[in-house]
Amino acid sequence: MNYKISNSTLALSRRALMVGVLAFSAAYLPHTVAYAAEQDVFTLGKAGDPDNIDPAVTGTNNSFTVTYPAYERLVKYNGSASDMIGELAESWEASPDAKVWTFKIAKGHKFADGTPVTNEAVKFSIERVVKVEKSQSKQFTQITKIELVDADSIRFTLENPSATFLSLLAGSGASIVNPAVMQHEAAGDMGQAYLADHTMGSGAYQVTSWEKGQQIVMEPNQHYAGTPALKKVVIRIIKDASARRLQLEKGDLDLVEDLPSDQLESLASVEDVAIVDEPGFFVTYLYLNNKSAPLDNVKVRQAISYAMDYQGIIDGVLHGKAKQMRGAVPSGMWSHDETVKQYTYDPEKAKALLAEAGVSNAKLGFLYAKTDPNWEVTGLVLQQALAPLGITLDMQENDYPTMRDKIDKGNFDIAAGNWSPDLADPSEFVKWWFDSKYQGLSGNRAFYSNPDVDKLIRDADVISDQTAREEAYKKVQAITAEEAPYVMLFQRNFQVAMRKNVEGYVYNPMLLQMYNFADMKKN
Q1: Does the bond joining 373 to the residue before it have cis omega, within 30 degrees of 0?
Q2: How far, rounded to the nearest angstrom, does the alpha carbon of residue 502 sit from its chain's CA centroid?
Q3: How confident is the chain (523 residues) per 10-residue block, as mean pLDDT?
Q4: In whole angstroms, what separates CA 386 from the centre of its chain?
Q5: pTM of structure
Q6: Partner residues linked to 418 by β-bridges
Q7: Kind and range of the H or E run holding 473
């Protein structure tokens, strides 16, 4: 018998999505009215605040919305493509073994206080990332030496050859921070407390105010090397998806994120609204805490994977706008394996595995936030599926920063999550998800550990032969599919809704929730 999402579950989800429409807070209205008529002000509607906007600390796309336009990096993606062009770097070269990289810094780039961006600032910023020892630091520990070659050049020496080093330098963690941040240092934190809610970059826009839970205002860096058209970027925090949608329809917002599929479909017929619907590597999955009983038992994890109605969620919640994942590496990226094990909805198999594991009458928590409207209904579907199997699932809603803190500390049973890569390389999924040295927010949020998997990943990380790397990554996918540290849910397109008078937005699959505000305008 086919399992279906119950009408009551979907009705509960729809009610949750509509909460707040009638109770829409008037506190937002003054800002909305003031900005709606201004052609040089861009308003973005988000579901929640960033957790932190220090580029050396945060690892969330939600925060990258702010850090991406506030800072510049040595290189950047070439528009919608995956190749690199210079941003702060005028030119660069690599040694034949790809272990030594030398960059010449372009002139004319200045921080918001007017001081030039120099090779000293680049050295300071990359060393700072490593020293703060937060989620971004582990990406840069491969650097063994940073040298100032001359007045304009900087050289990085790596421990091993790296096929992804240049792409790494395009990520938010490689943002170049004004060394003057040390004036705000407190208790040796290298300015972390200050940069958690301030910006000190050379990017087009800098944060000028942040009212937590309401809005972030970004205004132009008066010393920016370019000439952005927008005079202000306002990021409005509107938790309720229906309220975001209605404000977009009215013209009070220019772009909104994280709308459920049914609301995006309804917006498709609105005359002045356009839907951005682009393919990419954006995936949704569940973290199963492998260190927490009974989830430390592989049979229990497999049972939960068999208990999920993947196609039911895709059809009933996402309106068919997704496909079930098969292995960790998403479809369309090299080393994706169409032969790897894929779980299907099989409650009898799930029941048998739980019996083999000796697990009954268990109680687990499901950690989620309203940031993604699909997370709650996914939990409700799993709750309904596990109940007949003797597992009670307790829905545990938190604000997004609190949720992330709990995930980092391993203080959860099951948690909902999304992932999108910063570069088009399978290591973005395999390395970070499964290597035991990256447990927590760095990427391995299931706290999974397998020495054989560690070796495969680490060997692949230091070779340039793509065929050999692909073979290793496929082996990792096969092993981890069997051991089920995560429930692999679905891969979906990146979708946002925006007003049709917005011009200049460029989509790049490695830059989800990151907008090229410096090139955008409203006609």
Answers
A1: no
A2: 24
A3: 42 40 37 58 95 93 96 96 94 92 97 98 96 82 94 95 87 96 95 97 98 97 94 96 95 94 90 91 96 97 97 91 95 95 97 96 96 93 96 96 95 96 89 95 95 96 88 98 98 93 94 95 94
A4: 28
A5: 0.82
A6: 284
A7: helix 466-483
Do residues 47 and 241 touch, judged by C-beta distance below 8 A?
yes
Closest CA to 502 of 255, 167, 208: 255
For residue 99, the 8-state DSSP code is: -
Report which residue type is found at 411.
N
The answer to whether the CB of 468 falls within 8 A of the CB of 334 is no
Which tokens is 107 given?
């002139």
Angle between helices 373-386 and 7-18 (to 10 degrees): 150
Of 505, 507, 25, 503, give the one whose Cα is nearest residue 237.
25
Phi, psi of 384 (to 5 degrees): -65, -35
Q: How far apart, in whole angstroms, are the C-alpha atoms of residue 472 and residue 460?
A: 6
228/224 Cα distance (integer angstroms): 9
Helix H or strand E segment including 514: none
In whole angstroms, how far apart are CA 365 and each of 359, 370, 386, 430, 520? 16, 16, 12, 26, 43
Query: How far is 106 from 203, CA to CA, in rounded Å?
Result: 14
Contact, 45 vs 123, CB < 8 A?
no
